[in-house]
Amino acid sequence: MLYPILAILGGLIVLVWSADRFVNGAAATAKNFGMSPLLIGLTIVSFGTSAPEMLVSFMASINDSGSLAVGNAIGSNIANIALVLGITAMIAPMPVKSGVIKKEIPLLVGITLLAGYCLWDLTLSLSDGIILFVGLIVCLYLFAKYQQEEEGSDDEEIPELTTSKAIFWLLIGLALLIASSRLLVWGAVEIATIMGVSELIIGLTIVAIGTSLPELAATVASALKKQHDIALGNIVGSNIFNLGAVMAIPGLVSPISIEADAFSRDYMAMLAVTILLVAFCLWQRPARISRIEGGLLTAAYAGYLYLLYTVAS
Questions:
Q1: What pLDDT does 21 receive?
Q2: Pairing state between β 288-289 and 94-95
Q3: Is 258 helix (H, G, I), strand (E, B) or coil?
Q4: CA 218/CA 136 separation, integer angstroms
Q5: Distance, CA of 111 to chain centre
Q6: For labelling, which of 49, 73, 135, 202 has a CA lying 20 to 30 Å from the CA of 240?
Q7: Of 22-36, 45-59, 143-157, 198-212, which range is least confident?
Q8: CB atoms < 10 A from the CB of 52, how many?
Q9: How far apart are CA 149 and CA 183, in angstroms?
Q10: pLDDT > 70 fraction of the chain, expressed in percent and rounded
Q11: Is the dihedral of CA 299, 301, 307, 308 positive or negative?
């Protein structure tokens, strides 16, 4: 029991510390290369925090467990919006720029609907994988195009770092962010197992939340530093990567059939929280995600976990 407890404490400390360094490095890198904080949140930060899901998806696919990869992508997207964004908004309410509502969020809605089209027949074929991956490429192209149209952001607090130091903290922070989250999840699973908690509950709670720890740490750290563009860009970008890359991998590697519940329950839950995010961004001016809305998102995630538990038990 001692080692798992130490793993949790050590993982949590390193997670918080590395998230701070990672966000500083990301923001400074964006500034030094003339990139907007939103673009680096949508690309570098979101790719980095989605890297564990991509690895899990690839390993699951080559081991003929493609359904795990699909569940991983859908579950991560639900957690990113309902849990990560919900908790972040409760800690630090997030303003949403009109450009994000008009450009980036519609791309998220579009690729979410595209994923629904691919899963509609309860199979994920090679052509579906290609469609999703092409969708990701189109999104990345449009991100770069929107960057050229953006005027410089002047309301973000960007740390002053040299380019080499910024890239160093970006890479080191990301590596420690992923490693510490894995360490924390291992410790939590070990303790839960020792205490007799079932694998189902462990999978639905500790592991599900654990795979979103990099996003959670990076997003909260960004919001607290008033890097709201990086925070929101991380969520939008991570979800797009999860659908365009993580979910595409099984189709590209080993086409699969999926369970009906994966579409009727889990995909629809993902679509619902995505639409809820859009509604929160549209129903007030200036657009922002408040503490109350963050609480509603977090409650929605708790309700989803409870639904999974009641269905499985």
A1: 83
A2: antiparallel
A3: coil
A4: 22
A5: 15
A6: 202
A7: 198-212
A8: 23
A9: 41
A10: 88
A11: negative
Measured distance CA(30)–CA(163) in Å, rounded = 10
SS3 6: helix
Note the pLDDT of residue 294.
95
Two tokens at 60? 């699951």
Using a cut of 0.85, tell me whether the model's pTM lies above it: no
Neighbours of 117 (CB within 10 A): 11
pLDDT above 60: residue 15:
yes
**Residue 157, helix vs strand vs coil:** coil
Kindly give the interhelix angle for 66-78 and 268-282, rounded to the nearest 10 degrees: 20
What is the DSSP secondary-structure string of 90-117?
A: HHS-EE--HHIIIIIHHHHHHHHHHHHH
Give me the amino acid identity at 62.
I
Looking at the DSSP bridge assignments, the partners of residue 124 are: 256
| pLDDT for res 277 | 94
CA atoms of 265 and 267, how far apart (whole Å)? 6
Distance CA 145, CA 83 (A): 30
The rounded percent of the chain whose pLDDT value lies above 90 is 33
Both tokens assigned to 253:
């590697």
DSSP characters for 23-58?
Answer: HHHHHHHHHHTT--HHHHIIIIIHHHHHHHHHHHHH
The domains of the chain are located at 45-149+196-312
Domain 45-149+196-312 annotated CATH 1.20.1420.30: yes
167 pairs with which residues across the strands? none
Report H helices in the chain. Answer: 2-32, 37-40, 46-62, 66-78, 86-91, 98-99, 105-119, 126-149, 163-194, 199-202, 208-210, 213-224, 228-241, 248-253, 260-261, 268-282, 291-312
Report CA dihedral (173, 180, 96, 280) to the nearest 10 degrees: 170
